[in-house]
Amino acid sequence: MRKIFFIFLAVKLFAWHVLVINSYSPLLTWTRVQSHTIVKELQKSDIKDLDLYVEYMNTKKFAPTDSYLQLYFDFLNKKYHKIGQFDIVIVTDDNALNFVRRYKTTPLFKKSKVFFEGINNISLQNTLDRHTYAGVFETKNPLANFKLAKAVKPHLKIVYVVSDTTVSGDKTFKQYKSVFDKIKNVNFIYLHTSNLNQIIKKLKYYDYYSVLMMLTFGGMKYNGEIVTPKQAIKIVAKHYYNPIIIHSSIFANIPHTTIIGGDCTDAQQQAILNVKKVIKYIHHTPMSKLGFDMNNSNRMYLNVKNLQKFGIDWHDLPFKNVVLVNKPTSFFEIYKTEIITFFIILLLSVVFLIVLAKKNRDLYKYSQEIERLNKDLEQRIQQAIQENRKQEQLLFQQSKLAAMGEMIGAIAHQWKQPLNALAVNIQMLVDDYLDGIVDEQYMQDFEKKQMEIIQFMSKTIDDFRNFFRTDKEMSEFNLKSAIQATIKLVDKQLLNHGIQITLEGDDTTICGYENEFKQVVLNIINNAKDAILERGIQNGYIKIEINGTQVIIEDNAGGIDEDIKDRIFEPYFTTKDEGKGVGIGLYMSKTIIEEHMGGRLYFVNTQNGVRFVIEFKGF
């Protein structure tokens, strides 16, 4: 086995030759997204010795007949004769895969490992050799789209199912029809044709209680001329004003249509999953273990503004982990980055001026004290101890200021819903006044409701203000209550980023500084959040457990690198990009727990992330 391994290394001293073959033209949005994502993901990987080539078969324009396929193979064979053979071939969509399979025994492809995506012919999973082929099948989820149709039209009577007559269109149409034929009490009208004029004629007197599903429409003709997919859907939208459901993400937000979204195949996600398999193979994972993905690339897309046209709030739909497009934007949402950047710069400027002024005062004081320190060694030692304490306090203040910067974002999340409620209620007051239904009792009720919202916002500010209060004396406090109060400050931010946080365990009382303990917990939670977001972890989570006088905080952000794990508690050490971290959070956290509260703070890497442990002496 060892001899085989060394032979493999010897063979791979030269570059990997990788050919990407796309079934269609780069002018097609779907193909452009697939091809661009493949190249981008490979280029940003850790694979250095990579010769990458990209080709397009353009089978929308040139039908994949035997003569065309032979001409295309001859073209590739001549173009790449100096390479001789490719180590890896990546194909997008069915025609490209069928082409490579047809010429697999030729010298150009004979030793190639083939990675595919966007394949509609699901039956190939039973025939493809798993030692040679791996990739992503493009499966559809008709029931999810039917569920969306029922959600937007509770009294649904008719579903118009539109599909062109291309190879992909035929296969997609059959998949949907096989599922819909089993559904009762709804009439499915199938418009399986590439003639847009016939489709528009059928939709002339469409039913109000209906939706339209656009499956495939890349091969449509209108008035005898070929039209692009976007043109096809815009033409349909001029004649059909009810909700339109699509199953391809690239069409989720076409202007001047009533597309509300759908359970979509995602070109970018397919490419990402496929490239991950390529990278694993290059890193010596056997092909047979890479296998086939069936539906991991599908996601539910929702067009927020188009849903509002039908009086539907996307929050009320029975779907989770959705991709939102065409969202309304407030002034804050439009200029969110600029506003946050301004306040961060302002805060950092204030901190810099405070620190600079403090440093100037300290330098002046130090110059006056040097002579006294030289006269008496003991006095010098005591003075040094005092200065170290002052420096520790300075670091502590810096840590709090850095945390306050993150709290600005938390306050924004806490206030978002009540501010929206105030805006809506004020708009309703104007409408009700114009309708003549505003009287004294109405105004009293209106005042009461708005004051409740304002009191909630006031309490939010009090919570944040109390959070940064400094405890002067040690006191008894409940660990679970303190952690719950801390989670309350950031749960909206975590929810917004799709990060789950849980707390369980004992109701334990200890003696210490409650607010300083909260800041330690907040710092560890924020570090976990930042790591999950920076590394693009899907289904991120933070688990907190209280076991007696021990608090365990664990995440799935990938852990701490071995080469820096001995430095993370050093002052000013940070792994964040310049300007994004001050590097004193964990240092001050360790100081608070171990020096101020007599406990212990340490960490261990787990299989999926890192586990921080806070231990206190029994009380």
Question: How would you describe this structure to a colleague?
Answer:
The protein is of the alpha/beta class and 619 residues long. Helix content is 48%, strand content 18%. The chain contains 18 helices and 22 strands. The protein has helices at residues 2-11, 29-43, 66-79, 94-102, 142-152, 167-180, 196-202, 229-237, 267-282, 287-290, 304-309, 331-334, 336-375, 377-434, 440-467, 479-496, 514-534, 585-596, and strands spanning 16-22, 50-56, 88-92, 113-119, 133-137, 158-163, 187-192, 210-216, 221-222, 225-226, 244-246, 259-265, 292-293, 298-303, 323-325, 475-478, 500-505, 509-512, 541-547, 550-555, 600-605, 610-615. The strands form five sheets. The protein has a seven-stranded mixed β-sheet, with helices on both faces. A six-stranded parallel β-sheet has the order 2-1-3-4-5-13, sandwiched between helices. A five-stranded mixed β-sheet has the order 17-19-20-22-21. Helix 13 (336-375) runs antiparallel to helix 14 and helix 14 crosses helix 16. The longest helix has 58 residues, at 377-434. The chain starts with a helix and ends with a strand. Residues 1-12 and 578-584 have low confidence and may be disordered.
